[in-house]
Amino acid sequence: MNFPDYRLRRLRKNPTLRAMVRETGLTVSDLILPLFVTHGKGVVRPIKSMPGHAQLSVDNLRKEMKEVAALGIPAVLLFGIPEHKDERGTSAHDPHGPVQEAIKAIKDKFPAVQVITDVCMCEYTSHGHCGIIKDGDVDNDSTLELLAREALSHVEAGADIVAPSDMMDGRVAAIRNALDDEGHGNIPIMSYAAKYASAFYGPFRDAAESTPKFGDRRSYQMDPGNTEEALREVALDIDEGADIVMVKPALPYLDVIRRVKVEFGYPTAAYNVSGEFSMIKAAAQAGWLDHDRAMMESLLSIRRAGADMIITYFAKEAARVMSKAG
Ligand code: PBG
Fold first, then answer.
1. Interval between CA 195 and ligand 1 midpoint (Å)
2. Has 41 been annotated as catalytic?
């Protein structure tokens, strides 16, 4: 059937009809909120390029977590800013590091909220790279053991899910084996499977104090031109035992999210990264965009591409918009 017999505008007449034929939905249970946990006490250090976000010390997490729980946000993703950094990032597996202490504090008071931890070395190394440096580049195989130790220390502190973001080859298997050997066979791995070397991580690196001191991450993170390679990354991670696969960033890589979801049918996460967040904040502050509409449209587009869950700095604001709408 065709115009004038078929008219697509018939089903756009009013909000009720539009809601009835809407193909993709967004709900609060799709959202994961990243948090930056720092060492020390009484710290709330706002992150300038990410309005509404701050580095928090463990004692200041309670208020944030109350909001998260009240809004119905199912999970948080923790990043740590340690007191000491060294060449090998040894504080990453400190049982009393900020992330480990934060996990204990959160699970104690908010047991239902799923605590996911970012497993990477870049916040813990003095050079800011995601692994051990040998001959001017990150050495893959010697980094694996440190990542496995870090993941294990998070799980021992009570983490529900570990999320390796380093992009070393073989790290999912290394972490899976380390967890299984210690009796943690039921802890899922959310792997940053297709993580691109992206300019959109800019604000995050200030937030997590993880900017590399020399060079860049292009010898381990993916080249933005590649999709087939992303599928190989995902296939390998699934083979090694990943339970959830992630594409990162989200908005510039919606096509990759789509292909990953269609080809593997695995639980798929997308990371709506710091730069994607800050762009909307900046444009809204300048009066150039309607903040809430741009936020909700972006999140919906990530769901439409195929993501089952979205890690986003907008989680609280989006949850508020949805609770008003509902
Ligand atoms: C750690 C890590 C990064 C992000 C998440 N985990 C930074 C990076 O790889 O440089 C970026 C998150 C964001 O921009 O919101 N490797």
1. 9
2. no
**What DSSP assignment string belongs to 279-320?**
HHHHHHHTTSS-HHHHHHHHHHHHHHHT-SEEEETTHHHHHH
- Is pTM beyond 0.90 here? yes
Q: Please state the domain extents for the chain.
A: 26-325
196 Cα: distance to centroid of ligand 1 (angstroms): 10
**Closest ligand 1 atom number to CA of residue 200:** 14
Q: Which fold has domain 26-325?
A: TIM Barrel (3.20.20)
List Cα–Cα distances, 231 to 156, 219, 260, 263, 321, in angstroms. 32, 18, 6, 8, 34
pLDDT in tens, 47-86: 999 999 999 999 999 999 999 999 999 999 999 999 999 9
107 carries an active-site annotation: no
Closest ligand 1 atom number to CA of residue 203? 14
Q: Output the CA 325–ligand 1 centroid distance in Å.
A: 32
pLDDT, block means (10 residues), the chain with 326 residues: 96 97 97 98 97 98 98 98 96 98 98 98 96 96 98 98 98 98 98 98 92 95 98 98 98 98 98 98 98 98 98 98 86
174 close to 144: Cβ distance less than 8 angstroms: yes
